Amino acid sequence: MDPQKRLQARQSQDIGQRWQTEFHQRCRLLAQAGRMVILDMSESVRKVRPIAGGLFACALKKGPTDFMFLASGIPFLCDAKATTEPAWAITDSTLEPHQRVLLDDWEHQHGRSYIALQTSGGSFMVPWNILRGLRKYEPNNEAVSMSGDWLEEITR
After folding, report:
1. Can you say how many angstroms the Cα of residue 71 is from the centroid of all Cα atoms in its chain?
2. What letter does residue 134 receive in the DSSP assignment?
3. What is the rounded distance in angstroms from the CA atom of residue 37 to the CA atom of residue 73?
């Protein structure tokens, strides 16, 4: 891979990991306040087996979405995404096909699916049913800004 592309890929990965950490911290605060139960799925594993001195875990390439949480009795499935741009391009590399299927299946079972999206314009909870089928998403009135009480708004 070209060194410039490798650097860009690494920077993009770093931005995404920072946003995922920030989103998790916000959720943890709500969980501590008794407003949600959260299951962090971002570090998925396939195999756990004993080895000398402990356990060995093998990370999955095709993991589930990043978070599941329960708020006001409503089950949510959420994936955290970040970009330095004002809009988010929805491609197989930014949201993998197996994740799209999982988000669809979750909604089919009456859960709610969201993308926790951070752009250069702020951070938003975007309903998956709005994103489904789009190639590009620019936050607008269909997204809930995470600067306010977004949990309150998405559980109405």
Report:
1. 16
2. -
3. 10
Query: Residue 62 in contact with residue 96, Cβ under 8 Å?
Result: yes
With residues binned 3-state (H G I as helix, E B as strand, rest as coil), the percentages for the chain, rounded to 5, are: 35, 35, 35
Closest CA to 117 of 78, 69, 91: 78
The full set of domains in the chain, from first to last, is: 3-154 (3.40.1350.10)
* pTM (predicted TM-score): 0.75
- List the structure tokens of 129: 């049913």
With beta carbons less than 8 A apart as the criterion, state whether 85 and 51 touch.
Answer: no
Give 143's DSSP letter.
Answer: S
Q: Cβ distance 102 to 65 under 8 Å?
A: yes
Q: What are the pLDDT digits (tens) for 120-142?
A: 889 999 999 999 888 889 888 78
Per DSSP, the chain holds a count of helices (H) and strands (E) of: 4, 10
